[in-house]
Design brief:
Helix content is 34%, strand content 21%. The protein has 11 helices and 15 strands.
Length: 337
């Protein structure tokens, strides 16, 4: 998808000019940004979950294996229609096409929570910590509150969020049951009031070897479900090396978050990933985050847990503190016993 305007871009270069001026002091990113192999993630046909006994068992086994060995997989026949995905993308693009100076106001008009519109990385102290992107990070309660600021966008966001939330719960239930545990924990703690939808735009970047679209990180939730366009740019760590994920227009990407790794006592893996920039075209994606309430305590479901018990609120607070102090997230190692 070609970039069609510049007035909609946040002032990333101007705001972070000092970081660009000092980039000669940064480690050269070019080798790790471009010396990567392209791969196909495990591709799982979720229609198997609705099949006969053998089909269900085989599909569940595939989901659990990919979550153990990759922490990521692609899902087809996931139950979310192409019409919903295409309409969501179309309305998302229209939202981001608003002039930059109007986007925060547009979030207010849509009755999104304060601070929903975000761009860049305010805490960045070097280019390696800067994300060349903008996003609307929206609680599901904002989406389902009947906002009429933009009828078409509001309605498709709600439809998308509800269907993707159902899918996330279905995957979480499978992963819990594959460990021999009932899925009640997720049904009771991961509610619409605690989950989020994030609409991302990565503008074209004239310095793709200098800056990430989204800096390397792991997700701080239980599960993330991602719908991305055909541009590509998502990369993840596999066997100690960065690999590039080949876009599949028919698939959603599902990945394990930190909370699921801790809850499963390291059975399922929360994998570091990032987005690289593109010098010619913009990129869009939409992510759903399956999260509990801040007071939910994460306790290993297995004997001899590797992590101490912690609340989600405590975890998020520690992540924010580390980002402020060190410029990056430390995450689960902070909570090892």
């Amino acid at each position: 998808m070609a970039c069609r305007c510049t007035s909609c871009d946040p002032p990333l270069r101007e705001t972070y000019e000092t970081l660009f001026r000092n980039r000669k002091d940064d480690r050269d990113l070019s080798p790790i940004l471009f010396a990567v192999d392209e791969c196909e993630l495990p591709l799982i046909d979720l229609s198997g979950l609705n099949g006969g006994t053998k089909e269900r068992m085989d599909c569940r086994t595939e989901i659990a294996r990919a979550s153990r060995e990759w922490g990521f997989f692609q899902a087809v026949n996931h139950g979310i229609s192409r019409e919903i995905l295409e309409e969501m993308r179309k309305e998302q693009v229209k939202l981001f096409e608003q002039p930059f100076e109007k986007k925060a106001k547009e979030a207010e008009n849509l009755k999104f929570s304060a601070g929903s519109y975000q761009w860049g990385t305010p805490s960045a102290t070097c280019l390696q910590q800067l994300s060349w992107s903008e996003a609307f990070h929206v609680p599901l309660t904002d989406i389902c509150s009947g906002s009429k600021g933009r009828d078409t966008l509001s309605s498709i966001m709600e439809l998308f969020a509800v269907t993707v939330s159902d899918l996330a719960h279905k995957i979480a239930e499978v992963l819990a049951e594959e460990l021999g545990h009932p899925p009640t924990f997720f049904l009771e703690n991961c509610l619409p009031s605690t989950c989020y939808l994030r609409m991302n735009r990565y503008p074209s970047c004239p310095m793709p070897s200098d800056v990430f679209g989204l800096m390397p990180h792991t997700d701080s939730d239980f599960l993330t479900i991602l719908h991305q366009d055909e541009v590509g740019g998502l990369q993840l760590v596999k066997d100690g090396k960065w690999i590039s994920v080949k876009p599949n227009p028919d698939a959603l990407i599902i990945n394990i978050g930190d909370l699921f790794q801790a809850w499963s006592n390291n059975v399922y893996k929360s994998i570091e990933h990032r987005v690289v920039t593109n010098p010619e075209v913009e990129r869009f994606s939409t992510a759903f985050f399956l999260c509990p309430s801040y007071d939910t305590v994460i306790t290993s479901c297995c004997q001899g847990g590797a992590y101490r018990d912690f609340s989600f609120g405590e975890y998020r607070k520690q992540v924010r503190r580390d980002v402020k102090d060190f410029g990056h997230k430390i995450g689960l190692p902070r909570f090892l016993l």
